[in-house]
Design goal:
heterodimer, A: 614 residues, alpha+beta, Rhopdopsin 7-helix transmembrane proteins, Beta-Lactamase, five-stranded mixed beta sheet, rod-shaped, B: 215 residues, alpha/beta, Rossmann fold, Arc Repressor Mutant, subunit A, 2 domains, five-stranded parallel beta sheet, 9 helices, 53% helix, 12% strand, disordered C terminus
Chain lengths: 614, 215
Amino acid sequence: MSLITVIWIMSASACLTLAAINFMVWFRNRKVWGNLFFCLLATGTAAFAFCELTMMRADSPARFAAVLRWGHVAVWVLVLSLVGFVRAYLGAGRPWLAWTVCGLRTLALVLNFLVGQNLNYLEVTRLRPTLFLGESVQIAEGVPNPFMLVGQLSFLVLIIFLVEATVTTWRRGDRHRAVAVGGTAVFFILFSILQSVFVFWGITRVPIVASLSLMGLVAVMGYELSGQTINASELGRKLQESEAGLHEIEERMRLAIEAAGFGVLVRDFNRDEMWASDKWRALFGFSGTERLDFEGVIKRVHPDDREALHSVLDRARSGYGVYDAEFRAVLPSGQVRWIGVRGRVEFDSAGKPAFARSVSHDITREKEAEEEGNRLRRQIAHVDRVSVMGQLASALAHEINQPLGAILRNAEAAELFMQDQSPDLDEVRAILADIRKDDQRAGNVIDRMRALLKRQDTDKRLVDVDELVAEVGALLRFDAAARHIKLEWEVADNLPQVFGDPVHLQQVLLNLIVNGMDALDGANPADRRVSVTAALNGSKTIEIAVSDSGRGIPADKLAHIFDPFFTTKTNGMGMGLPISRTIVEAHKGRLWAENKDDGGASFRFTLPIAEKVP
Amino acid sequence: MSATVPVVHVVDDDTSFLTAMSRLLRANGFTVKTYSSAQAFLAQRDAEAPGCVLADLRMPEMNGLDLQSALAQTSNPLPILFLTGHGDIPTSVQAMRNGAEDFLEKRAPKEKLLDAVARALARDSREREARDRLVELRALFDTLTEREREVLAHVVQGRLNKQIAWDLGIHERTVKLHRTAITAKLKVRSVAELTHLTQEAGIFPELLQTFPKGQ
């Protein structure tokens, strides 16, 4: 195959390929007219290249003239699409110039078919072979068509149009496009026009090779456009990436919500629709496809909890915005589950609720633990009473063993004395007197303990505060003496009675005094005192205070001493004070602690005086 | 080796029990002294006399354990027996760990009580003898000169005269002379005997591993 054939065919093919690509781009996005015009431009160039090749190989003048005539169709397409491309791609160029170019070119096409053999020749007289690129090609000789000027005028206007568009683009600041599109177009068009003008007016004797320079134009613009296409696809990729990122974030959120065991519910008030996550449906026992509505959901709420939930939701909907509730859900299986819900209502511009979004989770275990805690507390209230009694019993046992031990040793000694030949009867008499005395001591201890244990079951009744204090004092006297602690009592005369459970009130006083005595462990032996005072506080309450001469309560512990299980003692349960407070509060009183100015702590509680004999 | 009669010191804040216990012990032939508090006992006792202590664990101000540790600080640490009206385990463990002779309830059987007292007195006598022997031995070792003590330290570690001479920078013959003087003063015949005596006297405890005493 000859070199010329190869060059022209390859160039034309390249043009057609670019045309096809740009057609596809336009086809996908019909708004990019630049690509369509470029497609036409490239197609026209390819077509004209074929015409040129055919003319070079023409076997008769008539055939040459016919091919050239049809070649003008390609030129017409080419010129119009170039104008269109510049307008579409650069967004520049005077419209009237554009219309002038198109009009002149169309007129030239019409004349091409009406006058002479084609626009260029009235008649092609003969063909003359010429050497071109080392090959013999045909060149026409004939009578030039004067109307050819119309075509060349259209080219001139085209050049003006292109230059003007280029300058406008340049001035607009888009210098890259101005040079790449405008500049290149001017350069190549000028080159091809000049070449054909010289050929047709018979000035140079070479074949028409305008398509080569046009192909240069196509190549540069194709490059420019493909840059655009690459950018576009890059943008598309980024968009996809960010979409993937968004999806990832969504997935993570979903995972977190699912992992936390939260169910999500969204209610659209305007459309009266509800959407729930799978977890939410599982929590409330709805299947994955079941349609949700508000009434259906409320039916799953335990009847006893509905009213409270309604009021919370109503408040949120009427402008409060947020809600937070705990209720029982009754599942279709009959299973009951505690649900904690937190939600938010969004309002539209008119202030009407638009959406409600909420998260729900299963709080059954927390609720059960809470319930268990309450139960334990009640139990401990009992255990503690028993254990206080236990401690007391232990103290009393010590006190009983003391006289019993003395009795035993005295009896043993007396036995031995009596074995003597001449027993010292005075000694034996003294022993017997001591035994009687110690028996009395032991009996007193037992009487007091029995009195305390017997009264455990009594209910509320009128209580004399001075009796209460005296009884507790008798119980603790031994223990206080053993620990070398001075117990001081100061009860105002003629105190009115209070209404209450004397055993419980005794327990409070016991706890407080025992605590006070414990606070004296390690304190100065010369000043180990616990004082108990009872006096009227105003006209309606009696205030009882238990104060010790210890070091007081450290400031950081003062806030916690009434917390259950808070203790500073190695063998304490930390329940004494909370139970005491519970008891006092059950008697409509108040129990609090403070540090005295002279050191030591003071626990005070009030009891309302009995109004009338009920 | 005191000739004085051992005394049972009874310490209790409960005077009634104190009197009863004193009567029982006296009826069983013991010499008894009574005190109503630990402080009274520490102030009034004979600082050297043999005996033992029978003390209530629970007493105001200074309790039985306090008394035990105060007594241990003195030159006459009498064995101590604890009495309590109501035994509690942590206190008794503490008391026994501190070397109490025994721990008895106030209403423990008479035999158990009297046995415990007898045992405590025997222990006191034993320990007293050991203390006296130690004093004697220390006096004996005190007759050694500074140089002789140095040589002794080497000898009890089993070192040869030659090594001792080299270490102390003296003549081997001088070492031999020192050794003769040491054996003469301490009245021993062999190195084994010498080592044993040194160990017993508690000299050079850092050089000689001694077995726990009194076990």
